[in-house]
Model the fold of this input.
Amino acid sequence: MPQVFDVILSGGALVNQDGEGARDIGLRDGKIAEIGDLSRASAGETIDCRGLHILPGVIDSQVHFREPGAAHKEDLESGSRGAVLGGVVGVFDMPNTNPLTTGEAELADKVARATGRMHCDFAFWVGGTHENAAHLGELERLPGAAGVKVFMGSSTGSLLIADDAGIADVLSHTRRRAAFHSEDEDRLNLRKSMRIAGDPSSHPVWRDVETAVRSTRRLMNIAREKGALVHVLHVTTEEEIALLAEHKDIASVEVTPHHLTMDASDYARIGTLAQMNPPVREARHREALWRGVAQGVVDVLGSDHAPHTLEEKAKPYPNSPSGMTGVQTLVPLLLDHVNAGRLTLQRFVDLT
Done:
């Protein structure tokens, strides 16, 4: 008896975890029920996909949807709407909201807010702090938890563990791979005078290469000592790519579409709209990130989607907030890079 589906996507070039090839996809009750040769199956609707590529939905493992606390920028519903419009079917939302997502109650509140409102799958990072370090082994396994996120350098919000002892305490209690924003807080404070009022191009001068490299080197040493697995978010420097290539047994690596696309010359073009943490840097760093993608140092593409209102972004630097949108543009932007030959469709699928 032939198989029966609601919809068959017929003859497309499917790019999946097992490679690229012509395969049919059978859908039943809104879900993928079968992949393969479905020429003998029947369906209520058959869509001819010959000449087209079909990709899996993307998982964006770093978004900041701003709820609770700053829903005038974006909330969980509107952020997830942008995600699905851009081909993203699952998001991991960051903990630097207000209140911070650092305990069981705050995590449960986010899950409750998301349930029935978000249009994609979701999980929420739990923020690591000095105060909750001993409980992270339990918190990271709660329903809806993506894992633990630690800020080694200050960014948007008040989450911060700047000292080696605090990082070691976190990694003594985590059992899953913990994620890190890796910038050295002491150096950030030391170099604040390098910011030039009204000049966003001074942002990467303040948050310089050594600020990132020093922090990531510290993190590798502590993780090695503790036998812990870590995930380094939004890597931006050539030097970090070289360093992390030597620690792939303990460290996974994320890069973002904006750091793969922009360079420091864009500050003159779009000003504070290019301001983010860690910053967009000189072109040599962008090219090093692409080498990291090609060589397998980079494991994940995340958007670091971090919206603000245009009025907020229009404030003169350094009063302008850091962050830019990205969840809706991650897929089309990377497909442009595929078209330009910077990576293959298969590699794009691997990274997302």
